[in-house]
Records
---
Amino acid sequence: MAPSTSSTVTLNINGEKHTLSVDHRTTLLDALRERLDLTGTKKGCDQGQCGACTVLVEGRRTVSCLQLAVAAEGREITTVEGVAEGGRLHPVQQAFLDLDGFQCGYCTPGQICSAVAVIEEHAAGWPSAVTDDVRPEAGPPPLTPEEIRERMSGNLCRCGAYTPIAEAVARAAAQARTGAEEAAA
Ligand code: FES
Ligand code: FES
């Protein structure tokens, strides 16, 4: 008997479980868009170069066009449809709106998912390729425009809205810092 080329998987997306049968070659991106109607996540290059398909898997940025759906089983997946907090936009979403961090909007879901993770990665002290002092005792580097551009460099914007995108990330990061300081006080 020929080996089966499909499997039944249960994907945990935005806190909801979805069970579906998928061909083993199905990417997470295609499962989201074509099978589960979660079309917020966009397909740009379909080869891991543009970032339009970025989602969060266990809180880490993942280009869903390079992730097989079967490999995502049992992992916590967050798409742009799931980043809002209850009925309120996520601060990153609000900052993109307030500062016009988009033009056509096609790259925006991926930009927003990336930005959510960038802010958390930076707050956790992760260095980037442009961080001067990477010693652990140096603490998180200032989230300068250069740091933001480097950390967001996996997300391309063909409209060239990079300036307001970087400003939106900076604003949301500042709000997150203020919120963390108030919670700790
Ligand atoms: S569509 Fe996945 S990186 Fe471009
Ligand atoms: S807003 Fe159009 S591609 Fe980024």
---
Amino acid sequence: MVACTVRDSSYPLNASHARRQPISVYVDRNFVDYEKREIKFAFDAWTRASNGIVQFDVHWDVPKPYVFYKHEKPKADQGIFIWQLGLYDRSEVSEKLYNEYHSYHGLFIPGPNDSANILIFTDVVAREHFYQVVVHEIGHLIGLDHEKGHEDAIMYPHATGDCISKWDMKALCSIYGCSPRNQCVNIIPEGYKL
Ligand SMILES: [Zn+2]
């Protein structure tokens, strides 16, 4: 269903190299309302899973910093940006990038300093899986690697889990020093309709 990759030798992060708090993130203004809502749920879920240690300073409705088509790696002074991209849109994603990324629904690309790109290919992510892709990519952003052996983990390469599992929390807390819970942390609030 969903896949992504981490393309840098500096990942995953560890306890001596965790992201400074709060983490400043810029969100593409091209996301539609439900997507923004679910991106917010994703940030909140990671904050709850870390017992409040991981915090985000989110800047909403930000114009794209450049045309992605021409750039792959984040620029050093760009900060962390979550891109809304159409994988089939040749004005945004070149043929070459398409060929490289076409099996992905989301992608995390770390950059120099504190900069990073999170790409969400909204034209290939099904409505009901959008939040899983976003939670998974933010998991990479805060330093987590894949949980290859645990299909219920949100950091499973295919992000099939629907909550932040004890496996994810164990990895998270090894970086940020929180106490992992034994119970899954819900991402979508009760009563919210996907
Ligand atoms: Zn991944």
